[in-house]
Amino acid sequence: MKQEKPHILIADDELSMRQLLELMLTREGYHISYAASGRDAINMIEKHEFDLVLCDIRLGDMIGLEVLRAAKRKNPATVVIMISAYATAETAVQAMNDGAYDFLPKPFDNKELKKTIAKALEIKTVEHEKRIITDALKENLHFGRIIGKSPKMKHVYDMIQQVSQTRTNVLISGESGTGKELIARSIHENSDRCDNMFVAVNCGGIPETLMESEFFGHKKGSFTGASHDKKGLFETAHKGTLFLDEIGEVSPAIQVKLLRAVQDKVIRPVGSNEDIPVDIRIISATNRKLADEVIAGRFREDLFYRLNVIEIKVPPLRDRMEDLSDLAQHFLEKYSKEKGKAIAKISSYAIELLARYDFPGNIRELENLIERSVALTSTNIILPDSLAISVHKRLEVEDKKKDPFPEFIDDISEGVSLENILDRIEEIYIKKALEISNGRKERAAKLLNLNMRSLRYRMSKLGIE
Fold this sequence. Notes:
Layout: E1 7-11, H1 15-27, E2 31-35, H2 38-47, E3 52-56, H3 64-74, E4 79-84, H4 89-97, E5 102-105, H5 110-123, H6 126-139, E6 141-142, E7 146-147, H7 151-164, E8 170-173, H8 180-189, E9 198-202, H9 208-216, H10 233-236, E10 241-245, H11 252-264, E11 266-267, E12 276-277, E13 281-286, H12 290-295, H13 301-307, E14 310-313, H14 324-338, E15 345-346, H15 348-355, H16 362-376, E16 381-382, H17 391-399, H18 408-411, H19 418-436, H20 441-447, H21 452-462
Parallel strand pairs: 1-2, 1-3, 3-4, 4-5, 8-13, 8-14, 9-10, 10-13, 15-16
Antiparallel strand pairs: 6-7, 11-12
Helix pairs in contact: 1-19, 2-3, 7-8, 11-13, 14-16, 19-20, 19-21
């Protein structure tokens, strides 16, 4: 028995937009109906069953929220996706609170829209999607703390498994914010030292004058302020793992003392004449290229080879963007729970916006961004306007969207309405210019390199107020 095509209602008062969406979605195998006004859309919803409604926020005779509410009254299972070039954050929030599945701003990415529609028809509700996302997160959680399914991270997982079974020193290299300490902890917890201490120290956070005492301890009276004996980090980590983060920050004088501790497995506290044997595994981490530091004479070659028996290279977030959605959802759930908010997901367009940013601060920057976004949002979904991303970063990622109509070239083989396509592109640029100029037509005309007469004619032709 042939499966019935999903029935989609397009509610938009722009003829060119209805034609564009009908052409694109018909080719995807959907049965399409369309309405030119809010009243027509509501009448059709009352008479027919639709699997999905694609509705503009601003219709000619009413706001799209009325169509959304009508669709949900008729059948709560109907998926409604809102689209608009004009919606305010408040309108988007209201749409989500009224049951919209997602919100996409115009101009939208054709591939992203098709992906969102296909996913929405499969999942139907935000609550169902949240369960699916949570299950997927569990599948992609490794060693109880690391998230990712990308090939580069799978290689890291294999390395963790292999080195955990040895007592070899490990160097973890990667940019700041990539999660090097999580990898170090995973190695420790999967080793035969897991029942003993994991001691983490940021070498860059200890003043050089105190570093020797912090690493190796001191005896009472060995220097001003040494009022009692103190164990150092090496002795504290005995039988366990010592994690030396940012090892490249250690001064040459301390490197000499570190070399002896690593090589001979003995330490001598400041002010003592006796050596203390230590049984520790050392895992180091750096955001520098230590080999270059050796060549430059800033890091001892013999210490480098003692620490760098096995190297694990952690990829930056920009090289594992297939993990972005899972990471963002993980942080969303973490901070939603922490702040007592019931936020189900991040909208598809918000994820697309994040995916076009290269995150120089890596996962740490993503986590910080999601935490702030959770604090600022007032709906059950993170929308693009809820993303706590600075203006210059938002412009940067939005500028990366080179071609707003990447699929029309492929569509030519089956015939297109070139006039409608050109009208739509022209409309998008005029509306964007008016938005940037706060509605001042003289300024918009200058941005578009048009005279006022030409701009008025084009606005009248396209029905732009």
